[in-house]
Amino acid sequence: MYRLIIFSIILFLYSCKIDYKHIKEKELEYSVNIISNKNYKDDRFQPPFFSIIGKNPETNKIDTFEDGRWFSSISDSIEIGDTVYKKKGDNFFLIKKKNLILKVKDKSNKKGEFIEILKR
User: Total domain count for the chain?
Assistant: First the structure.
C-alpha cells in the first residue's frame, strides 16, 4: 500500500510538469495590434487568461485577442483608447497611451520590474 501511494505521488508530480519552453515559443508567436474600447482597470475580477476586444487600426475592424496570460497581470493598465501592440517574435509588448508608452517584458530587470516607461 505504501509503495502504491508513493508511486501515485510521483506519477502526479511528473504529470504536472510544465513545459515552459513551449509556452515561451507560443508567446513569441503572438501578434497583436488593438485599440481598446474598454477600461480594463474597472474589472473587479481579472481571470488568468485575458481577452482584449477593440479596433484593429490596420483593418478598421473589431478584433479580439484571447489567450493572453502574459497580458493578464497588467490588464488594469489598459484604458479606452490605449493601443496594445506586439510584433511576432518580440519578447515584449507595448501599451501605447496618450502621453507615454509602457513596455512590458517577459523577464524582470535587475530591480525586479517587468514594465519600463517610455516617453512619446
Answer: 1
